[in-house]
Specification:
The chain is an all-alpha fold. The chain is built from 16 helices and no strands.
């Protein structure tokens, strides 16, 4: 009981670290796509490359931090470095003048996220029993996304009261600082026995044995068409939402994410994570079809954000909670690293393709491509489940 209680406190503390970090981050990200398009040399294709490259580098570096944390079992220190770096970099958007400036800062922020994410997820997974894994990740995701709701609302409020976009980037430093204080004082290290001295390639080979590699294949099929939130915000602008209210579209997206995260985690613990993941893929498929349709208007934009947010809440919760079930317990950091590397490279491809398609062929073609890849992934996950039984 004591171990469970301590573990739960760790989950909650890490959740509040993410809560304040996301207030900071989403204040910036809710206004970032339109800010970047206002810089010299920007286009939707360029935005797609910036987002894709930033995410790919971020996800790729998670493999390194995951392996490193498995070797030394000092996850908290690595997590702290990652959060500190991100919170120091984001305010620099206030002085960005070109798309190159924006790319460098965006990559810097994602590197910080890369350093912290795999060891943080491993620390979360080590704080609770396997039977409570989905609930723990759901709780963490819900706190994370509650901050992600407040961030865009604050950004919109500041803009309505006369603050500039660049002012908001500077203000974002304050909630990030609170997150660091919580991490330093409340999060406890779950010290374990360091991983053996095997070579990294042997550890990777061990993780990839069995069904984990098949799971990654299904994830790739989905992720090569999984565009990020920036395209939702650009579609909202095209649909007639005023620039000062674009952050509220993002807030609605994150609200749907937060509301569904815990129920999705609990449901995945009850009926299985794979079936719930199929539901998430299906909701993304629906959002892609809605975006490919020739509709418009602010109500449409907010509705699409709601559907898309539900997809993110399910998939980002359940997909992460699925990883420990297919990896050795002493190599979970490595497994998360491989998972994030795979997803990151897929996201680079997805955002680059969709940005280019939208710029050259139109939004309908771009989002139809995403619907096709999602449909393929659903079929792949059904086959994955059948092969397991």
């Amino acid at each position: 009981m004591k171990r469970l209680s301590e573990g739960l406190r760790n989950v909650i503390a890490l959740g509040f670290v993410s809560f304040f970090t996301d207030i900071s981050s989403e204040m910036c990200f809710s206004i970032l796509p339109t800010f970047i398009l206002g810089l010299t040399g920007a286009s939707r294709a360029v935005l797609g490359v910036i987002e894709g490259l930033a995410e790919a580098l971020s996800y790729g570096m998670r493999a390194v931090s995951g392996v490193f944390s498995d070797r030394f079992r000092r996850r908290k220190a690595i997590v702290l470095v990652g959060y500190a770096f991100s919170n120091a970099v984001k305010p620099l958007f206030a002085v960005a003048q070109t798309v190159v400036d924006a790319l460098v800062i965006r990559v810097g922020d994602r590197i910080g996220k890369a350093v912290r994410t795999s060891p943080r997820d491993a620390l979360l997974s080590e704080s609770v029993s396997d039977k409570r894994m989905g609930a723990a990740f759901g709780l963490h995701r819900a706190l994370d996304q509650t901050g992600a709701i407040l961030g865009p609302i604050l950004a919109s409020a500041f803009m309505l009261f006369g603050f500039t976009v660049r002012d908001i980037f500077l203000i974002s430093f304050l909630p990030g600082l609170i997150a660091l204080v919580i991490l330093l004082t409340l999060v406890k290290e779950r010290v374990g026995k360091p991983a053996g001295k095997e070579k990294v390639l042997i550890e990777v080979e061990t993780v990839l044995k069995g069904r984990f590699s098949l799971l990654l294949l299904v994830v790739v099929l989905f992720s090569i068409g999984a565009f990020n939130f920036s395209f939702i915000l650009l579609r909202a602008k095209d649909a007639g939402v005023p620039e000062s209210l674009i952050p509220l579209v993002y807030a609605v997206l994150n609200m749907a994410h937060a509301i569904i995260a815990i129920p999705a985690g609990l449901l995945s613990d009850k009926i299985g994570k794979e079936p719930v993941l199929i539901m998430g893929y299906g909701i993304f498929f629906t959002s892609a079809l809605l975006l490919s349709a020739p509709f418009g208007g602010p109500v449409y934009a907010f509705f699409v954000a709601l559907v898309y947010g539900a997809y993110v809440g399910i998939v980002e919760t359940v997909q992460r909670a699925l990883v420990p079930g297919y990896a050795p317990s002493d190599l979970r950091g490595t497994a998360y690293g491989i998972y994030y590397l795979t997803v990151g490279l897929s996201f680079l491809l997805a955002n680059t393709i969709i940005g280019y398609m939208w710029e050259t062929l139109g939004s309908s073609v771009a989002f139809t491509y995403s619907a096709i890849t999602a449909g393929t992934a659903i079929i792949g996950m059904v086959a994955f489940i059948k092969a397991k039984s």
